[in-house]
Design brief:
mainly beta, 2 helices, 7 strands
Length: 155
């Protein structure tokens, strides 16, 4: 798999023409996810959702994927911790913020990346109850059992 880095205002057009690029390892970037909370006429589904692609669900055990020539998996180079730091209008509803590992074909943009694949690696900011719930579902931000802080105190 080749990884492609392009910086241009015509990024979509250019991305369609490149067939080979620079091979690099995986990249850790930042993004937000929408949480669908249960409401009167709608049930929640205990999954993270794309902020912009209304029906795109990030599943805990499968990487997210998309065609970088059309939409792909968007992520930011810099940390985003709140709705106010997010660069676009995201509507109502809770958001969780964290890190994503991206790989495959990657197009670099002014603020970040659009990649072929992505996987949640940490959930770092947002409502504390939702963070706890979704960290368990996606199995991220765990303290390894071998670390002293994970052990029960003796005595």
């Amino acid at each position: 798999m080749a990884t492609l880095f392009v910086t241009s205002n015509r990024k979509n057009e250019l991305a369609r023409h490149f067939k080979h690029g620079v091979r690099v390892g995986e990249i850790i970037a930042h993004r937000a996810w929408r949480v669908i909370k249960p409401r009167w006429l709608r049930s929640g589904d205990d999954r993270l959702h794309s902020v912009f692609m209304k029906n795109y669900v990030w599943h805990p055990d499968d990487p997210a994927s998309g065609d970088v020539r059309t939409h792909g998996i968007y992520s930011f180079r810099d940390v985003i911790r709140s709705r106010e730091e997010y660069l676009f209008y995201v509507g109502n509803g809770p958001l969780l913020f964290g890190k994503v590992k991206i790989w495959g074909e990657v197009v670099e943009h002014e603020w970040g990346y659009r990649s072929q694949f992505g996987k949640v690696v940490s959930l770092d900011y947002g409502d504390p109850e939702l963070l706890d719930k979704f960290r368990k579902i996606y199995r991220v931000n765990r303290v390894p059992a071998c670390e002293p802080s994970a052990r029960k105190p003796e005595g």
